Amino acid sequence: MASLQLEGRTVVVTGAGQGQGAAEARLLVEAGARVIATDLAAEMPAHLAALSASSPDALAYRQLDVADASGWSDLGGWIESRGWQLDGLVNNAGITQRSRLLDASVADLQRVYEINVAGALLGIQALTPMMGRGSAIVNVGSVAGLTAHYPVAYTASKWALRGLSHVAAMELGPRGIRVNTVHPGFIETAMTASAKPEFRQATLAETPLGRTGSAEEVAGVVLFLLSPLSSFVTGAEIPVDGGQSGHGGAKSVSDAMR
Questions:
Q1: pLDDT digits (tens, 9 = 90+) for 141-195
Q2: For a Cys staple, 21 with which of 16, 62, 127, 239, CB 3.0–4.6 Å?
Q3: Within a domain: 5
Q4: CA-CA distance, 70 to 163, in Å (whole number)?
Q5: What's the whole-model pTM score?
Q6: Residues acting as catalytic residues
Q7: Is 75 strand, coil or helix?
Q8: Residue 4 domain-assigned?
């Protein structure tokens, strides 16, 4: 297998306590990177502790609320105190909120925005000064950011994240820092486990591959975008959704005509 050329690189992953973030942290360690995993919990989650025990020099854990600017500043200072140059940032942390259009409040929008959008902005602002040429940022969006998905607060936040990502790619490009976005579809995580059965069934019906995705399938694309193998890729948006966003709703029409 060809190397992703991630050996010796240092990458921060937010929301690494479970799901996609945990998979990203694990695959990065397996690829030879040093991972700074962050999440809300004060103590390192058990699965990360097990990974750290087997690779003690490859994984560190820091508590972080991505919506807290001072927390990001503290994280940056902690990294600098160790003399590490940062090579990558994965803005994976996110929350959902499933209110429909006529029921959603401004507070709903603000709460989701603070984590899903402002959290990514704060991370970029705090850590970009520590990154050199060849570094990469990956923002984790959603199929909701490519469609008129029904949870309005979550959907609006992921569309906003797309705009942030494009501006960051434009402004950081001259510094040799790439910024890309992945858009997961229905991925088996703790977040999607709370979805109603009807949501799962309807989503599968709209997914050409006919199944849900795994956190590792998202993480694989994230690793590619962090690696030098994607050295001329920036400002890109890659759906990891089994084709759900690619047919523009035509699948339902196609299925009805069979």
A1: 999 999 998 899 999 999 999 999 999 999 999 999 999 999 999 999 887 887 8
A2: 16
A3: no
A4: 24
A5: 0.95
A6: 154
A7: helix
A8: no
